[in-house]
Amino acid sequence: NERSADSGSLNHQGVEANHQYSKSFACEKALANLFQRSVHPKLNYFSLLRPLSDLAIARLFAELTPYHQAFTSCNRSWREGGEFSWEKRWCCRCDKCRFTFLALAPFLSKEKLVNIFGKNLLDDTEQAKGFDALCGLGHHKPFECVGEVEEAQAAVQRLHEMLHRRQANREQWIERMVEHLIRSAERDPGARPRMRRNVSD
To answer: DSSP letter at 9?
Structure first.
């Protein structure tokens, strides 16, 4: 369980709703205390990934090429059609697929991403509202196990920098969605200042 699980999806009248509470540090500490009281005082319960953000994990995982065809983070693929298909382990229509693709995009080539997911989600205009929500643009964070809004923004920022570093060889596979997110941030008065400043600079 990573650091990002501490981030709630919605704050309503001062109360944070975090559907990932069972993965949060607060829950981890509560379970650790329970195990030490009920099982053994020296039994420690903790997550080795706790200090890491989702983006940090994505950067490390991008280097583990042998496992790129052996993982999924899509819940929908497990329940659609009644039987799980490993060949269709990414639905490419849900928030988890979008966030995983976005988190890996700064660290993998288009070819490697398409090989994992089966398509380029950043070149699909029907995904725009979903990416908006991940970046906190006009929507609250999705009620899914996805990273923090700031992490999605940081991934967009990194992709934006890639576009500007490689003017001679434009990264067209990411350009459409990145430019859309830039324009959304500039139009949205409620956009977080970091997104508006970093992405539009």
So the answer is: S
